[in-house]
Amino acid sequence: MSQPERLSAAVALAALSDHPYYRYRGCAPDPDNPRVAAGDNSVSVDAWQAPDVDGGEEREVREARESAAVDVCVGCPVMVQCLAYGSSLTPEGKLPEPFAILGGRTALERTKALVQERQAAPVPVAAPVPVPVEQLRTEQKLAVLRGLARHADPELVAVAAGLGAGLEGLRTAKWQIARLKTQLSLPKSASRAELLDAAVDRGLLDRQEVAAAEAAAGPGAAGPAESSPFRSGRRRAGRRGRRVVSVPGQLAFDFDDQAAGASVTTLYPTTTSLETAA
Ligand code: SF4
């Protein structure tokens, strides 16, 4: 069931205070004793507000105070208008008088109702704002897009974009590809073809240039089958149970290799051999 629209606090307060019975409200000071409520002389006029005391109010005291105040509200001639005010919203979207009992509802009850209402409301989804094409037309982004038109493998894209064959170039290429997807309002899972299409649509690449680059690269460029000379041997050799590191500039090590196995034994003698040596 949809909630009634909340009034603005200013409008609701005017409706309450202008009501002809407002002067007879239960929480008004009694004319004979301004310290007690007109609706019930056994209730203090302060009962509608939480007292400002160090450490807060004890629970039993608070419950007794709130219960007495709410009982007066129930017999109040402007309870409906008062509750409308207590449920209204300030220009900042907050409840008015956040610590007061209004219209027979405690501050906590009014707050909980507002929170539940907001949680139940559908969250508005903002339409993605397209990034100005000038922001996309950087030298590196355009180079990555041109590299992507020629290659599917990010390592080859990095090389083609002039980012280098090392890990840093690969990382930059991947970062730029991910960034371009976001800036072109594509999902993270967008394919290379979808990214190129979006780039062509935004005028970052020429469609004929993309087609020519793909034709020149051959059918292998369109899919993940394309292999890079920089690809780590770990991925290929891993399927055979081998662990090979082939990062350029670093040592290669193959644990399946008999000679390598022998060198490991030599470098790290077993406890038994150490004891024997001792
Ligand atoms: S409903 Fe309660 S808080 Fe509101 S005017 Fe009446 S007595 Fe006061």
UniProtKB/TrEMBL annotation:
Assigned keywords, A-Z: Plasmid
Q: Does the keyword Coiled coil apply?
A: no
The record places domain 4Fe-4S Wbl-type at: 37-112
| Segments of skewed composition (Basic residues) | 232-243
Compositional bias ranges of the Low complexity kind = 215-231
Locate the region Disordered. 215-243
Q: Does the keyword Lyase apply?
A: no
Task: From the Swiss-Prot or TrEMBL record, give the protein name.
Answer: Putative Transcriptional regulator WhiB
